[in-house]
Amino acid sequence: MIYKTFVPHPALSDVIECYSYVRSAVKTPIIQTFATPLLQTMAFNFKLQPGEYVLRDHTDRLDKVAYFFGQYTYSGSLTFPNEIDVLTIRFKPLGIPKITGINMAYLTNGAIAIEDIWSREFPSLYDQMKSAASIEESVGLLEQFLIRKKQSVSLSHRGNDVLNALELITHTRGNIRIKEIRSQTNTTRKTLERAFEHYIGIHPKLYARLVRFNAVKNFLDRYRFINNLTPIAVDFGFYDCSHLIEEFKRYARYTPRGFYESTLFDDVVIQYE
């Protein structure tokens, strides 16, 4: 298996977190599981072998060459055939709107083919990327395209309100009242909710809950300390141990113990944190 990561061009540092590339040929399909990560991505499938995007209430067949994926609000999985050649772009918050201008509410718990957004320009870009001599050259071609797209899109001032709110939510690990966010960003409830829906795809209250869930999950990923969850629950702002377990089941489908004992999430499965 070949696995590579790349940092973005400085002109895209506020848009893209990183690039990752995987090429592999194995005997069985590859399942990529996710437990409601804070994640918005773009993915290129150079092998053109259809995969499946499985969420709680629907399954989508991924038979296009490239997709945008929006924010998840529950767990799911991506299944790839036994031969993959995939480039994934992980965006920073507001990254996709900064290059497309689209309303992220349309992408919540879903995916959209990139050719449906950039119908005229994308086929040529994809052909150049697929014909490139190396994955590094492919990424360079993509970055040139994305820089041009970023220059052609402008966000409203509400985008800055969302960025300021995200900073507050992240700094507090999701333990902040929406009223406090509104006060510090000088926004009304409806204004803040509409801005979040447009640029993130979900309301600020739900986003804060996902930040808190991911914070405690990342802690448990590192330490697997699940015998006594009470002090962890208190430290991460849950009412009690039962509240932590309830939230974990909501966003990971399992209790903490069940999650880490499940074979669905063992080391052979590619996972997003």
Give the secondary structure arrangement, pairings included.
Blueprint: E1 2-6, E2 16-25, E3 30-34, E4 41-45, E5 51-55, E6 59-62, E7 66-69, E8 76-80, E9 83-91, H1 95-100, E10 111-113, H2 122-131, H3 135-152, H4 158-171, H5 178-185, H6 189-199, H7 204-223, H8 230-235, H9 241-252, H10 256-261, E11 270-271
Parallel strand pairs: 3-11
Antiparallel strand pairs: 1-2, 2-9, 3-8, 4-7, 4-9, 5-6, 5-8, 7-10
Helix pairs in contact: 2-3, 4-5, 4-6, 4-7
Give the spatial strand order of the biggest sheet: 1-2-9-4-7-10
In total, the number of strands is 11
Low-confidence spans: 265-273
Helical percent range? 40-55%
Q: What is the residue-mean pLDDT, rounded to a whole number?
A: 89
CATH superfamily of the largest domain: Jelly Rolls
CATH class (first level) name of the largest domain: Mainly Beta
User: What is the CA–CA distance across the termini?
Assistant: 21 Å
Shape: globular
Q: How large is the count of helical segments? A: 10
CATH architecture of the largest domain: Sandwich
Main beta sheet strand tally, sense and closure: 6 strands, antiparallel
Number of domains: 2
Would you list the SSEs in sequence order as H and E? EEEEEEEEEHEHHHHHHHHHE
The radius of gyration computed from the alpha-carbon positions, rounded to a whole number of angstroms, is: 19 Å
Beta percentage is 15-25%
